[in-house]
Write a structure and sequence with these properties.
Length: about 475
């Protein structure tokens, strides 16, 4: 039955609860904000009045039978999925749940090596064994793109017992793989296809965007509606198509890891964002694409800068491209992306998503307009005028897939010792190291540390990038397997 996408069952129930002026003797302890007046005065009383706990009239995320269930059904329909589950711990929790849904301990899963750290954590939780495929690389831009159909076919042929294929749709910079063909190949062998769609939550709602995973027949996808769909930070959805993966297993796994005190602020924002996307998405993303395309055109007139886009389609690792990802190569002005990232924030009060060796990335989405994008373009013009040193190719390290010595789970639970990073060549890592964003591990637990990896980590540190997931916050030392 086609549902009315103009309604917001959970959000309406939350507003009705506030209207009743209930006297709370349950949690949370701030009691509609009265116990935390400083925060209530700053954020507004309404925010804290609807920061409430599960109750009959508001349903329960662990076993939804009321307004949460209705809202999840609307979400599923909006995304062409059979089922949807609200997530209040971001798409990271969705990625982990997907991997745990398809992998028992010892089961193999094909996964691109440029996957987010949540995928590695999913392997640790599930005991799954990664079969890594190397993504295609654009060497001029210095970034990983999608994976080739051939690499997936080869991995399946070499590992006929594999249980699932994990695909990123799109990559951080907007490249997509030929997901439809990959799904066809996998399903012929009854292999599940699960999709990290953290940066593709908007795909479903405009014909000029790449197609969404559920439309293409994927078994599961995790979508960060907070990233590009307008909901509050940390709110996402897990989508499921019936067939290979059992809905009840997914629900059980979510209840194993997700809080029993889900935020109604986050869940109601999912309800409202879904309504906006489903009823106004085409109009909204027509505007977003116009703004993004204009920005790309203006930036490409600036000396030394290159805002890449649809011209990449058909090149290695780019089956399609998301134009709302405004990636800008800055090596033509003699600066690294790390440097431009810092200058934009510190001198122009502009925060872009990330910087890397060659590029910066700005994400254009539902809250952007021509004014905000003009500020970015004007700042980049000024930076080119002030800092342009001429084009340069920076020394960079090309990292191939490290050798897997033990599984991520075995490495996580193994005994470890701490040694200097510079002395770790040849050792097996006991932890992950990455720059965040994007949160793609340079090394993961169970992989052999090479001299190239050490060199690359030192380079990233020297660029003052934010490093995460190591026990040593300054990444002078690293945990490796051994006693």
């Amino acid at each position: 039955m086609i549902k009315n996408q103009n309604v917001t069952p959970l959000f309406d129930a939350l507003k009705e609860y506030r209207k009743k002026e209930v006297v709370p003797f349950d949690v949370p302890g701030h009691k509609h904000g009265r116990g935390l007046p400083e925060l209530a005065n700053y954020l507004g009383e309404t925010v804290l009045q609807v920061d409430v706990n599960s109750m009959k009239c508001l349903d329960n995320i662990s076993n939804p039978v009321g307004v949460i269930k209705e809202s999840e059904e609307l979400m599923a329909q909006a995304y062409c999925a059979d089922h949807a589950f609200f997530l209040v711990n971001g798409t990271s929790s969705g990625v982990q749940a997907m991997i745990m849904s398809v992998c028992n301990p010892g089961d193999k899963i094909i996964i691109p090596r440029n996957a987010h750290k949540s995928a590695i954590n999913g392997l640790i939780l599930s005991g799954g064994i990664p079969v890594y495929v190397q993504p295609q690389t654009n060497h001029e831009l210095g970034i990983a793109m999608g994976v080739s159909v051939e690499s997936i076919e080869e991995a399946i042929e070499e590992n006929p017992d594999v249980k699932a294929v994990f695909i990123i749709n799109p990559t951080y910079y907007g490249a997509t793989s030929n997901l439809k063909r990959i799904i066809e190949i996998a399903h012929k062998k009854n292999i599940a296809v699960i999709v990290d769609e953290a940066h593709g939550a908007h795909f479903r709602f405009h014909k000029e965007l790449p197609m969404a995973a559920m439309e293409l027949g994927a078994d599961m996808s995790a979508v960060s509606i907070h990233k590009t769909g307008g909901s509050l930070t940390q709110s996402s959805a897990l989508l499921l198509n019936e067939g290979i993966i059992d809905k009840n297993r997914v629900k059980t796994i979510l209840n194993l890891t997700q809080t029993t005190s889900a935020s109604y602020l986050l869940m109601s924002s999912l309800d409202v964002a879904r309504k906006m996307l489903a009823t106004q998405g085409n109009e909204v993303f027509t505007r977003v694409l116009e703004v993004s395309r204009k920005a790309r055109d203006e930036i490409n007139k600036i000396e030394g800068l290159y805002a890449f886009g649809n011209e990449l389609i058909g090149q290695s690792g780019v089956y399609n491209f998301d134009e709302t990802k405004l990636g800008i190569c800055v090596k033509g002005i003699g600066m690294t992306g790390f440097e431009v990232y810092d200058v934009l924030r510190d001198e122009y009060n502009i925060q872009v998503e990330l910087g890397d060796v060659y590029n910066i990335l700005a994400i254009i989405s539902v809250g952007d307009d021509s004014y905000s994008v003009k500020r970015l373009v004007d700042a980049l013009k000024d930076i080119s005028d002030k800092y342009n040193k001429g084009s340069v190719d920076f020394d960079k390290v090309v990292l191939n897939n490290p050798q897997i010595v033990v599984s991520p789970r075995d490495a996580f639970y193994a005994r470890k010792k701490i040694i200097k990073l510079e002395d770790s060549e040849g050792e097996v890592s006991g932890e992950s190291i990455m720059a965040y964003p994007p949160g793609i591990p340079i090394i993961t637990p169970g992989e052999r540390i090479s001299s190239e990896i050490i060199e690359y980590i030192k380079f990233i540190k020297n660029q003052h990038s934010m490093m995460t997931d190591t026990e040593d916050p300054y990444v002078e030392n690293i945990k490796v397997l051994g006693i």
